[in-house]
Design goal:
The protein has helices at 20-28, 47-52, 61-67, 79-82, 101-110, 131-148, 178-189, 201-210, 222-230, 252-257, 306-335, 337-342, 353-359, and strands at 2-5, 32-36, 56-58, 70-72, 90-93, 113-116, 170-174, 193-198, 215-219, 234-237, 263-266, 287-290, 293-296, 343-346, 349-350. The chain has 374 residues and is an alpha/beta fold.
């Protein structure tokens, strides 16, 4: 199979979907890998490094999409790439379609099969392709939150960990999944007073056993969210329902009740955001102020550390790329339940229920299109 790796064109996105090690594995398995020239530069991966492992470098995106059967990306495709997709082609990437009805419709019109990293899900509920990026985003959320609390960055002017005789900052984390756990670990390590809210008590128990330091776990409810968010110096939004829009847990009124120049880091922004006041930002312009609260809503947080993020993603996605390349979509879906759950669009139909609900379009069971019995 011909596999294409385009350059990422989203602002401040420096990751690439495959490393030279992945090229070598795919070429050894009998596949051809096409790399857009310069695609790895942001992650310090040269064209020569790819070429030495057997990749063919191509000059243009048109050429790459025109020849490739399987397109591997990091972020969802912009309009000019969507226009290049065609029937019988496979797109494998982060997509986050639930809050993007226009992109969803355009992808449906292409006839391509669209598989989303974020909804590839193992039987135990683990998200193997989202998890490495969640690890990074969670750790960075505490780091950037501390930075934007500094006075010269417009923040309250409070040190996350405090000092002798001066209390630490209150860090409230909504969600005790992978992002929340990593955020709690870093914030507690910085000696902040950390409060984590989640509806899943098992997640809270696991977190409490895993993270030492200043950590309090709280069963999430409308009242508990209001009580703790209003008193926070830093709020990290880390709520995820795979494939679905993020729930709006923080109303504009609640933002108005927060401390002046406190900080919200809305890691859930790529699924629409948890705060009613959130909207997407970029690394070049990462924050805005709404209701006198600083909002950090970068949709590709791991893109700030592309060397770490590229290798973490490529380590996770390579086995699935090989399976798709070796077997094709239908056979891969029939043999791999995780990949089956990753299929969001096929034959112009939405096969992920959360995505269909998010964009307000009909949902079709994948098994009605590709009969399988896992």
């Amino acid at each position: 199979m011909k596999i294409g790796i385009p350059s990422e064109v989203e602002p401040d996105e420096y990751r690439v979907a495959l490393t030279p090690a992945g090229v070598r594995e795919l070429v050894a398995a009998g596949h051809e890998v096409l790399i857009h020239k310069g695609a790895g530069a942001g992650s310090s991966l040269t064209d020569d490094a790819f070429r030495e492992q057997g990749a063919r470098m191509v000059e243009t995106c048109d050429e790459l999409f025109g020849e490739s059967q399987l397109i591997i990306k990091v972020k969802d495709p912009p309009p000019d790439e969507v226009a290049l997709l065609r029937k019988n082609q496979i797109l494998f990437s982060f997509l986050h379609l639930a809050p993007q009805p226009e992109l969803t419709r355009k992808l449906m019109e292409t006839g391509a099969t669209c598989i989303a990293y974020e909804t590839v899900e193992l039987p135990d509920g683990h998200l193997p392709l989202l998890s490495p990026m969640s690890d990074i985003a969670g750790r960075m959320s505490a780091q950037v939150g501390a930075y934007f609390l500094e006075k010269m960055m417009g923040g309250r002017g409070i040190l996350l960990g405090g000092v002798a005789g001066v209390p630490p900052a209150n860090v409230v984390i909504l969600g005790a999944g992978i992002v929340g756990t990593n955020a709690a670990k870093i914030a507690a390590g910085m000696l902040a007073n950390v409060i984590v809210l989640d509806k899943n008590l098992d997640h809270l128990r696991s977190l409490q056993a895993f993270v030492s330091g200043r950590l309090t776990t709280v069963a999430s409810s409308t009242l508990s969210v209001e009580e703790h968010v209003s008193g926070a110096d830093l709020v990290i939004c880390a709520v995820l329902t795979p494939g679905a829009r993020a729930p709006k847990l923080i109303s504009r009124h609640l933002v108005q009740e927060m401390k002046p120049r406190s900080v919200i880091v809305d890691v859930s922004i790529d699924q629409g955001g948890v705060a009613e006041t959130s909207h997407m930002t970029t690394h070049s312009q990462p924050t805005f102020v709404e209701e006198d609260v600083i909002h950090y809503c970068v949709g590709n947080i791991p893109g700030a550390v592309p060397i770490t993020a590229t290798y973490a993603l490529a380590n996770a996605n390579l086995p699935y790329i090989i399976e798709l390349a070796d077997k094709g979509v239908e056979a891969a879906v029939r043999s791999n339940e995780a990949l089956a759950r990753g299929v969001n669009i096929i034959e112009g139909k939405i096969t992920n229920e959360a995505v269909a609900e998010g964009v307000g379009l009909p949902y079709y069971q994948l098994s009605s299109i590709i009969p399988y019995n896992l």
